[in-house]
Amino acid sequence: MTPDQHPDSILIVDFGSQVTQLIARRVREAGVYCEIASFTQAEAAFARMQPKGVILSGSPASVPSEGSPRAPEELFEAGVPILGICYGQQVMSHQLGGEVRPGHETGDGGEFGRAFLTVTEPCALFDGLWQVGERHQVWMSHGDKVTRFAPGFRIVATSDGAPFAVIADEDRRFYGTQFHPEVAHTPDGAKLIANFVHRVCGLAGDWTMAAYRDTKIREIREQVGNGRVICGLSGGVDSSVAAILIHEAIGDQLTCVFVDHGLLRLNERAQVESLFRDHYNIPLVVVDAEERFMRGLAGVTDPEAKRKFIGGEFIAVFEEEAAKLGGAEFLAQGTLYPDVIESVSFTGGPSVTIKSHHNVGGLPERMNMALVEPLRELFKDEVRVLGRELGLNDQFVGRHPFPGPGLAIRIPGEVTKERCDVLRKADAIYLEEIRAAGLYDAIWQAFAVLLPVKTVGVMGDGRTYDNVCALRAVTSVDGMTADIYPFDAGFLSRVATRIINEVQGINRVVYDYTSKPPGTIEWE
Ligand code: XMP
């Protein structure tokens, strides 16, 4: 077995659905390791992983359309259980000899949103959960549908819009659901997926973070040997958890480098120093690079130019520090699973760059270092569990994400030290109030933005002419989409009053009411 092979795993074949990652989360919540592979890579992934079961995802594509994606035929001949979800059900039906017709031909436009199905026959997926004759809420999102199922299958649940809401071939252990069990709007969906991986695939559900930690420690030791590892800390959860895990594996062969680019939040540098030096005793180099970053940012107002400069300068500072340390063979990064999943493009063209993300990309090639990325297989919430496993407290592991370019992308227009200082104060007050109201953990990310706009106000008997501060707070599962957090007016006016009274340079506060899409979470 190769080091990254798990004996009990599930392969999820991605046809480009927006919610494929949710399937993976549900499988992992059931205590089973899984990986997502694009349908173009599925055959290789299957051979490498030798999974005990396969799940076929949904898709924006249409099975009857020419060129739409197919599952590798080998999967259907391998003797492992398969669960097809939505498009996955349709493509499996089509490939095994059934029929799928587009919505415009069946004349009923499909089903979108909440629907109810009726269980018509027992099925292993429903064991201990759904009984014959019961009605259950599910989430549908399909235009096409299966109109004739493949030989060997039978119908085990129906809905008004999808006569084949669930189909099963218990001999081959192939199942298909027209609805999406992976989304929260299918209340029993997680249990159906757990039934598939436990009862149908026979997996024990014993994949835990404690086991993951031990495996990774062993792997890191094997990979690194006596080599030296250098890790760029951002102060965020991911790089910190990666560093602490690596330190547990190889001790002082690891050195962390924390670049203070002057774009950090209030007290952030002190917190990182104290955590790493005092609490974990991990060798830490802190580079004071504020002046250098501010000089380079002078006069830069274009968001992409800011991002590019910060990313490039970060690499330069990091390289200099690594050289001072006498070099290292390995670079550690807190790369997460969502960053490594290959996105599926049906047009074959590159996807549009909305923002150039800054996360030390480009460093390994330039510095000729091998990567150590112990979190590559994890989702954000799993990293938090691992962090707790490593002794990090809840307050630290539960911190909101903070972008690599820091406050620079929360200061539209020119970034100066003065503007950073003003924003830091406003941001700290906002977060303090959010914590005091007990709302911090209910919010994915909350922060203040300093606008390059001055407005007139009146304070005491005098006229003011000062900056506008915008407050942003969103809920999200993975940062890909987001909803605004609906604070009550009393909370917002309390925060606004405090910011205007306590922060010199701000005389007006507004709340950002934009979801993502159409907005992005950060302002630049
Ligand atoms: P957007 O603004 O694209 O942000 O909706 C989505 C999530 O990503 C974070 N973000 C970044 N994280 N480097 C990072 O490490 C970056 O350059 C970067 N830009 C945005 C953002 O804070 C949000 O959580």
Quick take:
The protein is of the alpha/beta class and 524 residues long.
Overview of the molecule:
This protein is an alpha/beta fold and 524 residues long. The protein is 34% helix and 23% strand. The strands form 4 sheets. A 9-stranded mixed sheet has the order 2-1-3-4-11-10-9-6-7, sandwiched between helices. The longest helix is centred in the middle third of the chain and has 22 residues, at 303-324. It binds xanthosine-5'-monophosphate (XMP). Xanthosine-5'-monophosphate binds at residues 355, 357-359, 401, 403-405, 445, 479, 516, 520-522.
List the helices and strands and how they pair.
Elements lengths: L8 E6 L5 H10 L3 E6 L3 H8 L3 E4 L16 H5 L4 E4 L1 H9 L3 E3 L1 H4 L4 E9 L15 E8 L2 E4 L5 E6 L6 E4 L4 E4 L11 H12 L8 H16 L4 E5 L3 H14 L3 E7 L7 H12 L4 E5 L1 H8 L5 H22 L5 E3 L4 H4 L22 H5 L2 E3 L7 H10 L4 H4 L19 H20 L8 E15 L2 E14 L7 E2 L4 H14 L3 E6 L13
Parallel strand pairs: 1-2, 1-3, 3-4, 4-11, 12-13, 12-15, 13-14, 15-16, 18-20
Antiparallel strand pairs: 5-8, 6-7, 6-9, 9-10, 10-11, 17-18, 18-19
The chain binds xanthosine-5'-monophosphate.
Question: Descriptors for this entry?
Answer:
single chain; 524 residues; alpha/beta; 5-stranded parallel beta sheet; 17 helices; binds xanthosine-5'-monophosphate
